Structures are given as C-alpha cells and as structure tokens.
Amino acid sequence: MTTPRTATLRRTFHRVVPTFLLVVLGPAACGSLGGDAVPGPAVEVPTTMALVVSTTTVTVDEARSGFVADVAAATPILDGLTDADLGCVADRLLVDLEPAEVVALTQNGPRPDQAVLAVGALQDCNLVVRLVALGMAQTIAEDPDAQPMDVDCLLEGVDDDDLVPVLEARFASGSLVLDDPKVDDLLADTPMMANAVRCMTYAMLDAGVGTPAVCAGLADRLGDMMAILLAMEPGPGEEPDPFDLVAVFRVTDEVFDWLADEVPSDLLADAALVRDTNRRIGDLMAEAFQYLRGEDAGSHQEDHDARTTAFLGAMARIEAELSENRVEVNAASARLRGWTVSTCGEKSSMLFDLLAGAGVSA
C-alpha cells in the first residue's frame, strides 16, 4: 500500500543509508579507509587501477606513522579520530601485513581480498560504530535534501555485528557505490532499518528537546507504523497482499488507542469514535479476506480475481456502514486531526491518511 508519505520516506531512506556508507568508506578500490567523495552512479573500478606500490624498504615505525599522517590528512571524515585511534588500526594491520603492504594500503585503500582484514582492524579498535556515526553525520549535514536526523537515534541498538558485513561488502565490492538492494539485504535484520524510518519520522515532526510529550510519543508510534508500512510494500511485479492491508489497520488501531488517552477532555468522544471506526474498517477487511487463507490455491488469475472480489466486497461493506454516520465520523476526524496538527505540526496528519483512503475524510 503506497502513499505519498511512504514514498517520500522510502526515497529518503535509500538516499541516506547507501550514501553514508560511501562517505564512511570512500572509494574501496582506489582510496583510503575513509572518503569525502561525492556519491555518484555505480561505476565498476578495476582493483589494479592506479595502484601505488611501495618499492622501498620501510620499517614498522615508518609504516605506522605514515598511515596515521597520510590517512588523516587525505580523509576528512577521519579527522574525528585521534592519532591513537589511527595508530591502533595501523598496529592491527601490521600484525598481518608487512610494512610495505601497509604503505600500499594507506595510499591505495584495501584490496578486495583485504576487506575482512581492514574491517577487522577497525573492529578490534572499537571504531566501527564510531566511524559510521561520523560518516552519517557528515552525510546528513552535506545533503540539502536530507532530513536533519539525529545520528544517535539512527544507531540506537546498532553494534559492530550489524555493520561489519556491510563494511566488508563495501571494501570487497570493487565499485564506487554499493547497490541499494544489497544494503537492504545486509541490514534487513538489524535495528538500522527500523531506526531509519522512525528517526526520519521523528525529524519530520521536529520532535526533539522541548517537544510536548504527546508529540514525542506520537513520533515514536508513527515511526514504527511507517516502518511496518514500508516492510509490507510489494516488490516490483508482486501483487499486494490483502492481509497486509488488514495488518495496516491493526497497527493504526494501536496508535488511535494510545491517542484516545492523550487528547484533551473535549476531544475524548471524537478520539473514541475515530478509533472505533478505524477498528471496524480493519474488522470488515479481515472478514472479507478470511476465506482466501484456504490451502488450495488456484491459478494466478483466479487468485487475483478472488482478491479483487474480496477487496471490492470489503469496500462495499465499509461504504455501507460508514454511510450511516459518515458526517459525524468526518467531523470527529477533522477535529482530532486539527488538534494533532496544531499541537505537533502538519506532518503528524499522516496518521489520518489511511482513514481518508478508506472513505473517512478529515
């Protein structure tokens, strides 16, 4: 189920997540451990391109000091790391590499076959999450279209184990941009995915220090709702699952249940009516789609026809029931929406978009 707001969130998510990886890691095949390159189209770069190979003998101390000085100077995103941090990475690399190899890695970036080693060095020095945080902050600050999201919010609950596979894939990819679908797959079971949507919603509502408690609570719940909506959206060429539509209204049930206890006393009746209407719409859809759970599946066309019939039947029943008190429900929804917008801002009206799609205007 796609709405303008879910489409906006999806575009923002797919811009921020891959972009911060590029800023953090830089050109994997022809740069240093970080980067300040501007993201561009995915371009495959041969790993042998313009490699600078050390042909002189260097000592361990020279390789270490060169790594610290050259990487920090060439990579602005690493300015936030101390010499001790960078020295730790160099020391870890020197355990497995000869000094000349560290010099080459400093000048050229890690080769694809050194991806695990390079990320392991960052992990051993407890720099994975910190470096990603620096990259994300820079990405958000430099992208004029990005929501001003809080990096701590984006990384809440995220640890090295969540990010290491992405960083390893980035170093090993040999390309300037890691494809969005691959990023999605690698981050699918991490807190990052839900955080990105929740934090974007939080930013859209300008929820922060000094925000009324009701707006902070609404931002959290709307963020969770939008994350679920995005997870339910069908892929290219896939049919929408009618049971996802039922689940959408179950999710909004929880938000309206909560909101009914947060509104002023003069809106309690309105909030209860809107909540009950939303719940009834979900019940009618569940009843209409219930018989589609049968074990015997027909042809694709038969299945499509059955879903279409069930959906039209549900909408007809919803229309019939809403017609009995449509004026009253619309007025209550408008008052509740007006209070929500005046209290928490225009973006908070996304909660009411689903009701509007089902025939309840506000």
Q: What's the helix-strand series?
A: HHHHHHHHHHHHHHH
Structural class: mainly alpha
Largest sheet: none
**Helix share of residues?**
55-70%
Q: Residue ranges: pLDDT <50 for 5 or more in a row? A: 1-16, 21-32, 34-54, 295-299
Question: What would the average pLDDT be, to the nearest integer?
Answer: 75
Give the amount of beta strand, in percent: under 5%
- The separation of the N and C termini measures 20 Å
CA gyration radius, whole angstroms: 26 Å
Principal-axes geometry comes out as elongated
Report the strand count.
Answer: 0
Distinct helical segment count: 15
If you had to describe this structure to a student in words, what would you say it looks like?
There is one protein chain. The chain has 362 residues and is mainly alpha-helical. Helices cover 65% and strands 0% of the residues. The longest helix has 45 residues, at 300-344. Mean pLDDT is 75; it is low at 1-16, 21-32, 34-54 and 295-299.
Features:
disordered N terminus, 362 residues, mainly alpha
Give the SSE layout:
Elements: H1 4-25, H2 60-74, H3 83-96, H4 99-108, H5 115-124, H6 128-142, H7 151-154, H8 160-173, H9 180-187, H10 191-204, H11 213-232, H12 242-259, H13 268-289, H14 300-344, H15 353-357
Helix pairs in contact: 1-6, 1-10, 2-3, 2-4, 3-5, 5-8, 10-11, 11-12, 12-13, 13-14
